[in-house]
Amino acid sequence: MLETKNLKFESNNYLKPNTYMKIMKFGGTSVGKPERMHQVKELITRDNQKKIVVLSALSGTTNALVGIGDALADANKTLAKERIDTLHKHYLAFYKELLKTESAQKKAEKIIAEHFEFLNIILKISFNEAINRDILAQGELLSTKLFYTLLQELDIPAVFLPALDFMSIDENHEPELKKISEKLESILSNYADESFFITQGYICKNHRNEVDNLKRGGSDYSASLIGAAINASVVEIWTDIDGMHNNDPRIVDQTRPIAEMSFDEAAELAYFGAKILHPASIWPAQHHNIAVKLLNTMEPDAPGTTITAQEVGIGVKALAAKDGITAIKIKSSRMLLAYGFLRKVFEVFEKYKTSIDMITTSEVAVSVTVDDVSHLSEIVKELEAYGAVEVDQNQAIISIVGNMIAESKGSIAQIMNCLTDYPVRMVSYGGSRHNVSLLVDAQFKNAALQSLNDGLFEW
Ligand code: ADP
Ligand code: ASP
Ligand code: MG
């Protein structure tokens, strides 16, 4: 279930209109090669509108940093050192191709030396989770500093905005939007005449003032939060594909971009597995009614996808899927005609801060799905007080998203007709106007997505 829990929406009068500024976020592949970084420079300088440019790490870097942290967590310093050296070589080759002048190259050498010295020092001290998060932050720090050096080399005036000076999360890992907004407005007020601001996606400070992050893919979330914090005119997410497609292009043959969709539809797709957007990246823009555009760095004039409050069209628009789902069934004859049973069940999940995605009930049983299994054994133990508990792992949720699906005639029949070859374990239909969710064993996910693609869309 899409959650906007713990969000501090009530006090948003702090926002001053700032419709003259836009956000342009570029993902890993958009900055992953020297020529792509040059392309990003072209894109941000196409007009003179004030903008905050949010960059991810170069593609592959965060995975490499995760690998370094994993090796250190296993106390395998030799492997960690090998991984650091491989990444280091990549950056040494990258800057030489990115920058032409001696002075810019010198700056880049210094930047790279500092960050790899930091990683090498970490090899010598005892490893913990806070240090791991410091390691993960190096990618966005490197990409933004190298890009900023490129702008300096080309005499393009820009301001470097360290995200760690304004981006923060609280003890529940929720972004502190009011604080972010106040800090950003105060920083920006020092640069009334500047047009280009460069900052890092993904990284932030936590309530202990340590370096933290917004989880994998979190640069989209940073962009939307920054957009909401300054009330930007638009949040542009520049990536390696021409917008949100109607199905997962990594899995399904024949997908096509969707020109327009609503915030609710995009949020459902992001939450239920459309990798193009971080799962939480829609709500900040949605709450402040700021359009989000998904655009292709490699094909900048393609229309992409525009996401606004407007609901366009009726019926199924797109599919997404999320694996790693666990289904939990609680069966109890005591549920029959009993009130308060569901409350007790939900309280167990609440106690362990585990959010439920799908729910189905019958007179004698309730089935729910979760993706966070860190407290599964405690949850199962407590649920056993209310009935027999069955757990099925390796499930996948297929989410069918559109507008007024439950209201369109025959839509459920059409969906089910595509799935005659696959056992459907749960169905959630009518809970929202935008979503029908199905639970299938993960082994059927890809085939079911293809079959739904063939049956639900006209080609
Ligand atoms: P970035 O590095 O720019 O953040 P991501 O790799 O995170 O890019 O997201 C873009 C990728 O998302 C695409 O290359 C595509 O393979 C994948 N993707 C998955 N589902 C969809 C979808 N429904 N529409 C478009 N892209 C999708
Ligand atoms: N670099 C981070 C990641 O790979 C954040 C992002 O790219 O959005 O997850
Ligand atoms: Mg991404």
UniProtKB/TrEMBL annotation:
Residues 398-454 form the Aspartokinase ACT domain. ATP binds at K25, F26, G27, G28, T239, D240, R250. CDD domains: AAK_AK-HSDH-like, ACT_AKiii-LysC-EC-like_1. It comes from the Bacteria. GO terms for cellular component: cytosol. It comes from Belliella baltica (strain DSM 15883 / CIP 108006 / LMG 21964 / BA134). InterPro entries: AceGlu_kinase-like_sf, ACT-like_dom_sf, ACT_Aspartokinase, Asp/Glu/Uridylate_kinase, Asp_kin_monofn, Asp_kinase, AsparK_Bifunc_asparK/hSer_DH, Aspartate_kinase_CS. Its EC number is 2.7.2.4. Coiled coil: none annotated. Residues 22-296 form the Aspartate/glutamate/uridylate kinase domain. GO terms for biological process: homoserine biosynthetic process; lysine biosynthetic process via diaminopimelate; threonine biosynthetic process. NCBIfam families: asp_kinases (TIGR00657). Pathway: Amino-acid biosynthesis; L-lysine biosynthesis via DAP pathway; (S)-tetrahydrodipicolinate from L-aspartate: step 1/4; Amino-acid biosynthesis; L-threonine biosynthesis; L-threonine from L-aspartate: step 1/5; Amino-acid biosynthesis; L-methionine biosynthesis via de novo pathway; L-homoserine from L-aspartate: step 1/3. One of its GO terms (molecular function) is ATP binding. Belongs to the aspartokinase family. Gene3D superfamilies: 3.30.70.260, Acetylglutamate kinase-like (3.40.1160.10), Aspartokinase, catalytic domain (1.20.120.1320). It catalyses: L-aspartate + ATP = 4-phospho-L-aspartate + ADP. Substrate binds at T62, E140. Keywords: Amino-acid biosynthesis, ATP-binding, Kinase, Nucleotide-binding, Transferase. This is Aspartokinase.
